[in-house]
Amino acid sequence: MTDPVDSAARTGLASQALAQILSARQYLETLLADLDDTLWFTMPAGCGTHIAWQVAHLAMAEYGLCLFRQRGREPVDLELMPGSFRKQFQRGSQPQPDPAANPSPAEIRDVLARVHAQVLRELPTFTDEQLAQPTEMPYAAEATRFGALLFCAHHEMLHAGQIGLIRRLLGKTPVR
Fold first, then answer.
1. Strand, coil or helix: what is 131?
2. Is 156 helix (H, G, I), strand (E, B) or coil?
3. Cys-Cys link to 60, which of 10, 89, 120, 148 (CB 3.0-4.6 A)?
4. Average per-residue pLDDT for the chain
5. What region, left, alpha or beta, does residue 108 occupy, with left being phi > 0 and alpha being psi -120 to 50 degrees?
6. pTM of the predicted model, to two decimals?
7. pLDDT attached to residue 138
8. Are 62 and 115 contacting, i.e. CB atoms less than 8 angstroms apart?
9. 125-172: pLDDT as tens digits
């Protein structure tokens, strides 16, 4: 995968965070590449979640950690995902196995892609001074906006692990 952000435009902390976010997304995409839409809402026996919830939750979290937490709400955010999407897939929400109670896999993929594209546009503009500002949990490594960006990559890998397990429970071969 080619880095979609010109490396010359990246400096300092933003560059470090962006590299980790890109790496996590590349891995997530390999886990999703061969999954048929009919599997997205399947909750294997003993598993309390499904692929659709995992992916939608990641879109919501990337928005929260990389955009909202960094610069507050902006008018463009309404185009990224509706508020109902954020609420349905926020931390502590419960996966609904009925496809009719969820956005379609195509809609979830679209939100994931829109949020990620916006992050790729904005993250390189964040200065080290902005990223050094304190923030609340969740974060990784340090209680700063930079730590929130690092947590985004760590969080995506955590959920990628869950997606990898769900894939195995659905009879898919491991990606790695």
1. helix
2. helix
3. 89
4. 92
5. alpha
6. 0.91
7. 84
8. yes
9. 999 999 999 998 888 888 999 999 999 999 999 999 999 999 999 999
CA 74-79-82 angle, 5° bins? 95
| Integer Cα distance of 151 and 48 in angstroms | 23
Q: What's the sign of the alpha-carbon dihedral 62, 122, 32, 24?
A: negative
Mean pLDDT across the stretch 107-115?
98
Question: Which is nearest to 166 in space by CA: 2, 8, 3, 51?
Answer: 51
- For the domain made up of 12-169, the CATH class stated in words is mainly alpha
Tens of pLDDT along 33-54? 999 999 999 999 999 999 999 9
Name the residue with tokens 């962006």: 18
Q: Using alpha carbons only, give the angle 105, 107, 108 rounded to the nearest 5 degrees.
A: 65
Paired tokens of 110: 């679209």
Q: Rounded to the nearest 10 degrees, how much is the dihedral formed by the CA atoms of 131, 144, 1, 168? A: -170
Per-residue pLDDT at 7 exceeds 50: no
Burial class (CB in 10 A: 0-12, 13-18, 19+), 51: buried
Question: Is residue 135 within 8 Å of residue 143, measured between CB atoms?
Answer: yes
What the block records as the tokens of 9 is: 């435009």
